[in-house]
C-alpha cells in the first residue's frame, strides 16, 4: 500500500493554484490506487518551533558524538517528530507557491528544522553525505504569477529560486525521482488564470496515470 504525504505550503487553501494542481494529481492517483493512504502536513497549521540554542546545541553535540543534555534531547525529539512523516511516506506531494522569487518562509522554516544529520541525511568521512529518504518519489506543484518558462520574453526566469531550491533539497535528502507540475501566469487576469490552472490540472492527472 502506497503512503502519500501532501505537504501544503500555501495559506490560501481552496484558492491556492498550487494546491488545486496538487489536489488534481492526488484525486486522480486515489481513483487509480484506492488503497493508497493519504495524509496531509499543512505547514500553516503547525506550530513550528524556533531553531533555538537547545536545538543548535543538540545538532552540534550529534556532529561531535557527545551526549545530549535533557533540554537538547527534548529539542531533538521535536525535530524527529517533524521529520517522521517524510520517512513514513512513499510518495511526497508538495504544493509550493512562488514568494519573492523563492519559497514561502514556512517551507524554508520546515526545511531548516528537519534537514539535520541523522534525521534526513547521514555523513561519514568514508562515504560523505547521503540522503536518508531513499526509494521515494516526489511530485511538486509550483505556482507562479508570471511566465517563468524558457520561451518567455521576460527576465522572470532568471529570478526562479523556487523550483531549483526545492529540487536541490529533495535531491540532498535522497529523493531522486522528482516530477514537476507548473501553473503560471496566475496574476494576469481571471481567464488566463483559470485556463492555466485547468491545463496544469490536466497535466497532473496525466502524471497520475503514468505513476505506479
Automatic annotation (TrEMBL):
UniProt binding sites for FMN: 10, 16-18
- What domain of life does the UniProt record list for this protein's source? Bacteria
Q: Which GO terms describe its molecular function?
A: electron transfer activity; FMN binding; oxidoreductase activity, acting on NAD(P)H as acceptor; oxidoreductase activity, acting on NAD(P)H, quinone or similar compound as acceptor
Textual note on the cofactor = Binds 1 FMN per subunit.
On whether NAD is a keyword of this UniProt record, the answer is yes
User: What residues does the Flavodoxin-like fold domain cover?
Assistant: 3-206
Q: Name the Gene3D superfamilies on file.
A: 3.40.50.360
The record ties this protein, via InterPro entries, to:
Flavodoxin_fold, Flavoprotein-like_sf, FMN-dep_NADH:Q_OxRdtase_AzoR1, NADH:quinone_OxRdtase_FMN_depd
Tell me which cofactor or cofactors this protein depends on.
Answer: FMN
Q: Which Pfam families match?
A: Flavodoxin_2
UniProt record similarity statement = Belongs to the azoreductase type 1 family.
Q: What is this protein called?
A: FMN dependent NADH:quinone oxidoreductase
Identify the species of origin.
Pseudomonas chlororaphis
Amino acid at each position: 500500500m502506497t503512503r502519500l504525504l501532501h505537504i501544503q505550503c500555501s495559506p490560501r487553501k481552496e484558492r491556492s493554484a498550487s494546491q488545486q494542481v496538487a489536489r488534481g494529481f492526488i484525486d486522480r492517483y486515489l481513483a487509480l490506487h484506492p488503497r493508497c493512504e493519504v495524509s496531509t502536513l499543512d505547514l500553516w497549521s503547525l506550530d513550528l518551533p524556533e531553531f533555538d540554542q537547545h536545538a543548535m546545541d543538540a545538532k552540534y553535540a550529534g556532529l561531535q558524538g557527545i551526549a545530549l543534555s535533557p533540554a537538547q534531547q527534548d529539542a531533538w525529539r521535536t525535530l524527529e517528530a517533524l521529520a517522521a512523516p517524510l520517512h513514513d511516506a512513499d510518495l511526497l506531494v508538495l504544493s509550493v507557491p512562488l514568494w519573492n522569487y523563492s519559497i514561502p518562509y514556512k517551507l524554508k522554516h520546515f526545511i531548516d528544522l528537519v534537514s539535520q544529520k541523522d534525521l534526513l541525511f547521514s555523513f561519514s568521512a568514508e562515504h560523505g553525505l547521503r540522503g536518508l529518504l531513499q526509494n521515494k518519489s516526489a511530485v511538486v506543484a509550483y505556482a507562479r504569477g508570471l511566465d517563468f518558462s524558457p520561451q518567455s520574453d521576460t527576465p522572470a526566469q532568471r529570478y526562479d529560486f523556487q523550483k531549483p531550491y526545492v529540487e536541490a533539497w529533495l535531491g540532498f535528502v535522497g529523493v531522486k525521482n522528482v516530477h514537476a507540475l507548473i501553473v503560471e501566469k496566475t496574476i494576469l487576469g481571471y481567464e488566463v488564470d483559470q485556463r492555466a490552472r485547468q491545463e496544469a490540472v490536466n497535466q497532473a492527472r496525466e502524471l497520475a496515470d503514468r505513476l505506479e
